[in-house]
Amino acid sequence: MHHILLIDDEDDIREVASLTLEVTAGWRVITADSGTAGIRAALAEKPEAILMDVMMPEMDGPTTFREMQKLPELANIPVILLTAKVQGVDQRRFSDLGVAAVLFKPFDPMTLAQQIADVLHWDSVAV
Question: Where are the 4-aspartylphosphate residues found in this chain (predicted)?
């Protein structure tokens, strides 16, 4: 069973995404509602991958990612950014960070697990 950390400041996104990943893929999902809480959760839980919103108050996704990269115990965990920003300049900025991928909101709950599995080269998800 794969283990994912989902960091998003929106309650409904956390609820839909975590329920989707648990039900459609059978993954274990832990959630955090901010970058700071996400870093704490990642250190405590050691997830296999992190799915993180770009736009969050206080510490946004790219800043949270850069902070995680400074910590040896988190630096090798693949991070997938989740964003509503789809303009080319934003996409380039995100990919220049070194994240595993950028997925776009709104996402399709029925294909989210497969998109993540494809990016991370995990076995296919039975939906």
Answer: 53
